[in-house]
Design a protein that fits this description.
The chain has about 250 residues and is an alpha/beta fold. Helices cover about 45% and strands about 15% of the residues. Strand 2, helix 2 and strand 3 form a beta-alpha-beta unit. The N and C termini lie far apart (about 40 Å). The structure holds nicotinamide-adenine-dinucleotide (NAD).
């Protein structure tokens, strides 16, 4: 029970990494607050967790909305008495295009969901963690935000994910003395809807780019997030933690 008695907020919980994280964290004793766009998926997941794994509540919304960021924290407080940790994981790949061909709307979509929403999330979460005497925040960045991996058309996505590393480091520096830790998690290719799980040819291509010659399961990435959110990582803050099957060290 790595997360016993911790109240943890997870965004992007309706599928992929966030869903796997919700199930894992609840099984490790956490009370989980589930956020994402799709209410029906969140309701089903909350039911699954509440029927024997642990305790879950949910609220659907858009992470770009500052009121939603606040409402999720308020829900953690009313349902579970406060907020100990947050896995700010919701994200989109967006339109893939060379920057010279990319419209400002496509750029703004990716930056607002992946980066500006993280700013809004932290802004809402820090006071609640301060009231609790400390906490742990994790942003889901990506190997693309560190090494790109030679993937084409990733300008907006890479900028947003690299931005999360800078945001995590700045927050870590500002709040370390308050016992609030902030880290970024950089997954490699992961089998999820956004990772192309419905497109075997694409997944095979991405898998071969990794020195391990496979993609991660969502649960493997959730396990890395569990480490950063738990007290096992108590001396880690401001870290861009890579869990990418060796993608960042490949020699091509
Ligand atoms: P996914 O598509 O299965 O899940 C994305 C989640 O984000 C969904 O729950 C969705 O509802 C939520 N979301 C998207 N936009 C939102 C919005 N505006 N408001 C609220 N919720 C929103 O994808 P995933 O692969 O599980 O992605 C999770 C995170 O992992 C993302 O940040 C993604 O960039 C990152 N990531 C994924 C991979 C990969 O290969 N799958 C690799 C590295 C990083």
């Amino acid at each position: 029970m790595e997360l016993e008695n911790k109240s943890i907020l997870i965004t992007g919980a309706s599928s992929g990494i966030g869903r796997a994280a919700a199930l894992l964290f609840a099984a490790e004793g956490a009370d989980v607050v589930l956020g994402a766009r799709r209410s029906a998926e969140l309701e089903t997941l909350a039911e699954t967790i509440n029927q024997g794994i642990g305790r879950a509540v949910y609220l659907a919304g858009d992470v770009r909305d500052e009121r939603y960021a606040t409402a999720l924290v308020d829900l953690a407080t009313t349902a579970f008495g406060g907020l100990d940790a947050a896995f700010n994981n919701a994200g989109i790949v967006g339109d893939l295009a060379p920057v010279a061909d990319m419209g400002l709307g496509s750029w703004n979509d990716v930056i607002s969901v992946n980066l500006t929403a993280a700013f809004l999330a932290a802004k809402a979460q820090i006071p609640a963690m301060r009231a609790r005497g400390g906490g742990s925040i994790v942003f889901t960045s990506s190997f693309v935000g560190f090494s790109n991996g030679g993937l084409p058309g990733m300008g907006a996505y890479a900028a947003s994910k690299a931005g999360l590393i800078g945001l995590a480091q700045s927050l870590a520096s500002d709040h370390a003395a308050e016992r609030i830790r902030v880290n970024a998690l950089l997954p490699g290719g992961t089998v999820t809807p956004a990772g192309g799980e419905d497109n075997p040819d694409f997944m095979e291509y991405i898998a071969t780019l990794h020195p391990m010659k496979r993609m991660a399961s969502a649960k493997e990435i959730a396990q890395a997030a569990l480490f950063l959110l738990s007290d096992r990582s108590s001396f880690m803050t401001g870290s861009p933690m890579i869990a990418d099957g060796g993608m960042s060290v490949r020699l091509i």
